[in-house]
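Hi support team,

I submitted a single chain yesterday and got back a structure, but I'm not sure I'm reading the token output correctly. Could someone confirm the output below corresponds to the sequence I sent? I've pasted both exactly as they appear in my results page.

Thanks,
R.
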Amino acid sequence: MDIDARGPRFGAAVTTVVLAVALVTGSVWLLAWQTLAFLLGAAGGVTRSPYGLLYGKAVRPRLGPPTAFEAPEPPRFAQAVGLAFAGLGLVGYTLGPGWLGLAATGAALAAAFLNAAFGYCLGCEMYLLMRRVTVRAE
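Hi R., thanks for writing in. Yes, this is the structure output for that exact sequence:
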């Protein structure tokens, strides 16, 4: 079943703020929270992530009915990509090297910002590209 396309973009906006604060403050705990949010979004889909639940309960009822829908698989894959980068960031911040934490968190932040500000989901595009390549290979 397709999902309201505004939900993942809302999640990306919250993610942008969380990652920006984590990057500026160097907060491992905040990055750990975002890593957990990515994990839940990758495991259960974006509608079951913390930000998806917040969108569904507090934001969507205040908006009009959705006019655009999207398949849930690309945003779910994007959550898995975010999980990988946030996980690398945690490793860099906790075990070193520190530049790995900064770079991985910065990359996740850049991807989240692109989605929040412009509606361009890098992880979703990666998913679609992988699907095209695997379909042609069969």
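A quick pointer for reading it: The first strand starts at residue 3 and ends at 4. Let us know if anything else looks off.

Best,
Support desk
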